[in-house]
Amino acid sequence: MRKEAGPFVITVFTAPAPLSAGPVDISLLLQNRNGLEPVLDASVSLILRSEASGAEIQARPTREWAQNKLLYAAPVTLAEPGKWQLDVTILRNGERTEATGTIDVARAFEMASSYWSYIAFPPLIIVLFVIRERLIRRKAKR
Amino acid sequence: MDPVAAAVIASWSLDPKLLCLLLALAALYLRGWLRLRIELPRKYTIGRLAAFSSGLLAVLLALASPVDTFGTLLLEAHMIQHLLLIMVAPPLLLLGQPVLPLLRGLPRWIFKDALGPFLGCRELKQLGRTLVHPVVSWLALSAAIIVWHLPRLYELGLHSQAWHGAEHACFFWAAVAFWWPVIGVWPSRPAWPRWAMIPHLVAADLVNTGLSAVLCFSDHVIYPSYQLAPRLWGISALDDQSAAGAIMWVPGSIAFLVPAVILGMRALEPGRARTIRPMPRVKALRVSPRLPWDLLRTPILGSILRFRYFRRCVQAAMLLLAAAVAIDGFFGPQVAPLNLAGVLPWTHWRGLAVIALLMAGNLFCMACPFTLPRDLARKFAPPRYRWPRQLRSKWIAAGLLAGYLWAYEAFSLWDSPRWTAWIILGYFITAFMVDSVFKGASFCKYVCPIGQFHFVHALVSPLEVKVREPAVCGSCRTHDCVRGNHLQRGCELNLFQPKKRGNFDCTFCLDCVQACPQENVGILRVLPGASLREDRPSSGIGRLNRRPDVAALALILVFGAFANAAGMTEPVMLWIHQWHARLGFNSTVPIVTALYAVGLLIIPAILASASGWVSRRWARAGASWKDLTCTFTLTLVPVGFAMWLAHFSNHLVAGWSTAIPVVERFFSRVSPSSFPQAWMPGWLPSLELIFLDLGLLLTLYAAWRVAHRFANGERMALTVMSPWAGLACALYAAGLWIVLQPMQMRGTTMMHGMMH
């Protein structure tokens, strides 16, 4: 989502992709309209509102939480799938800027699928163990 | 510094998994390099170590530095990342000649037993030679570079973490194969002469140049994601793409052509052809038999542990801590997250105890505060009676353990500081009373449920109090380790060191270490879980695998691990409350009681009995149902321990900071205005799954080895172990489900909330 509001260009990133219900990470990049320089000294707050149930989540994204230190990020837990309205409020030098958008949230991501490599690890080791046993047996036969 | 530049430089993405992997590789290489440097000082120079370390650093820069963070916003950054993975890290790692150092750095059992058969396999050697053949490796690298730069696949990598990882793996491993013949990695023999590497490198540069030219001179943005990404510092997407092409072209060509020039100059050097020979063939890696690593012989820690009053000091510290927890539990605020008794025992102590079991051994019993008062009292009034012969088993302790696990859930002990304080006080009184009447460590051996938890799980610990050299004990006539002497008491649990096997019943008190006049007892490194397969009688215990009481104890602990962890998951709690509402009880105690009776006693007994019965039908003649059931039940301990470890480490990591304000409140007697909330880092579920994986694998391996005792041949062994393997897999599946559920963070300010 990208919006131009007041003196800023606001880009919102969400993770994971595609965005699904559950714990998610919401990050914002604030840039000056002129020159697209990143803005690092603003105070940002978010309100997420589910269009289906009206559930509301407030968050205060910070640069400390973000991996990319040009962004402001906050972890939030989206309880349900559907459309969520996102209200962004930016305070900088006493000036207040607001922007609104919508994000689509898919059904809860199956956690097991994101950990498939850990679940596949024991079968892989078992297969390697079987091969090892066969190699030992073959060597013993010679 | 400009704040934007500072922010860019600070944008690291330090993934603990990557850091652990790189640190492990560095440690392995260093260990092997140090050993090889003694044997082959001319081959393993400081330069090799520096090259390998720089290669690891290049991988870190590629995957964790701002280059990775900005890769999704700027194609230039992404291109630098790929260059590091293809042209910088692989040649540097290979210049370290890593094969032998990494193999020699491995623990001996991994190198010899686990990898040995693979290293000697003809087909695998042939496969390796094929993969690093110049033609094959050139084709592999060229295909990787071209295919992954096709817009559709490149976009796939940008939008999926998994595909991005696959892309990087393709680049890195194809580059390793490509650079292998160029560097001439020892001990493989080159397929082609050295001069033939010049066309190999030049041909690779041609591919690189062609692709760079496409990026540089294209009049449109090739990858749509960069068109949509916010433009930083006013750099347009097309300019970014051209710059990325230039980065690929110039440094890429340098990386390919400079080695080609060096090789050409060397080939033209007069007499060089005669002097350069491939490194000598290695006949076989010599792995000399060594004494196992001994914790007591480590420089500083060993001296501390050998100090005569070390245990007393640790016990005294734990006694003070237990007193503080009990006082706060009785007189402090009756809100678990605000009270030492609600935080320290349930969040911190349990987590630290299982981590100690994993990393070392039974350190809790070593520091046990409960036996300190009775030791002091015994100075004045020694006990006169021996523990009754009929009660010399683990049945009482197993019953107490089952009762404790039930009470924990039924009465929410974690949520009641006063109950916790009563339990601590009760423990002190019981230990004092039992050991005031009965000789030896009767309380530890026959009563203490916490001790049994540690005795059973220390069977999978990597350290064991053990005789250093058995031959020395052969000439011993005084047996001070068990009988003691005028200076030092012997083992109170009657474990005679030369005949002791495994950690079972060992409290790590180190009395035997102090008593042995030959200084022949150490804390030695052992293979985790090896004693689960032990079939010989052990001093003071007998045959562990023939004792139904020990099997019952192990079953309660294994199934208790899963029941205890499941009790804090959201679906189980909802289920309990639904039944509570449906049946109209005043409390959830009857439902929890029924659940624990079924889950902790009835189902384990039925499953173990049935598995034993099935194994008996397939085992060779003469094997009894009792022997089979008791033996195989012990092999389930690792998967149960893995669940305890996953569960308690979850509490410890998520709630470690909760101790700070509670300790502050205890000393200042002023309630702080805010408390840190439990926070679960993203890597924690992965760590818990690794624990479960390793637990399952160790259980299956132990069962496989044990099955051979009851079978003629491998096929029969497989059928004999199959019901137990099925049971272990079912427990593992239950563990996976538990780990991936939202959890109630008990004993923290998040205790009424749910977390993943």
Q: Summarize the amount of helix of chain B as a percent range.
A: 55-70%
Instruction: Give the class of chain A from helix and strand content and strand pairing.
Output: alpha+beta
- Assess the beta-strand content of chain B as a share of residues: under 5%
Number of DSSP-assigned strands of chain B = 4
Q: What is the radius of gyration of chain B computed over CA atoms, rounded to a whole number of angstroms?
A: 31 Å
Low-confidence stretches of chain A: none
- Biggest interface and residues each: A-B, 36 and 39 residues
Tell me the name of the CATH homologous superfamily of the largest domain in chain A. Answer: Immunoglobulins
What composes the largest sheet of chain B?
2 strands, antiparallel
Give the overall silhouette of chain B.
globular
Mean pLDDT of chain B: 89
Oligomeric status: heterodimer
Low-confidence stretches of chain B: 750-756
Strand order of the largest sheet of chain B: 1-2
Order of strands side by side in the largest beta sheet of chain A? 1-2-3-6
Mean pLDDT score of chain A: 87
CATH topology of the largest domain in chain A: Immunoglobulin-like
Number of helices of chain B: 35
How much strand of chain A?
Answer: over 45%
When the domains of chain A are counted, the total is 2
The number of helices of chain A is: 2
Protein model, in words:
The complex is a heterodimer of chains A (142) and B (756). By secondary structure, chain A is an alpha+beta fold. Chain A has helices spanning 111-114, 116-141; strands at 2-5, 8-15, 22-32, 43-50, 56-59, 71-78, 82-92, 95-105. Chain A starts with a strand and ends with a helix. In chain A, strand 2 (8-15) and strand 3 (22-32) form a beta hairpin. The model of chain A has no long low-confidence stretch (mean pLDDT 87). In chain A, the strands form 2 sheets. A 4-stranded antiparallel sheet of chain A has the order 1-2-3-6, with no helix packed on it. A 4-stranded antiparallel sheet of chain A has the order 5-4-7-8, with no helix packed on it. Chain A has 2 helices and 8 strands. In chain A, 17% of the residues are buried. Chain A folds into 2 domains: 2-109, Immunoglobulins (Immunoglobulin-like); 112-142. With 756 residues, chain B is mainly alpha-helical. Chain B folds into 3 domains: 3-270, no CATH class; 295-379 and 412-533, no CATH class; 544-755, no CATH class. Chain B is 65% helix and 2% strand. Chain B has helices at 3-9, 16-39, 46-64, 66-69, 75-95, 99-105, 108-119, 122-131, 134-148, 151-159, 161-183, 197-217, 224-228, 237-268, 272-275, 301-306, 310-331, 340-359, 363-366, 371-378, 395-410, 417-437, 442-447, 449-457, 470-474, 480-483, 511-515, 548-566, 570-583, 589-618, 625-635, 637-655, 659-668, 684-707, 714-739, and strands at 463-467, 521-525, 743-744, 754-755. In chain B, helix 5 runs parallel beside helix 14 (237-268), helix 9 runs antiparallel to helix 11 (161-183) and helix 21 (395-410) packs across helix 30. The longest helix of chain B is centred in the middle third of the chain and has 32 residues, at 237-268. Chain B is globular. The two termini of chain B are 39 Å apart. The interface between A and B is large, with 36 and 39 residues.
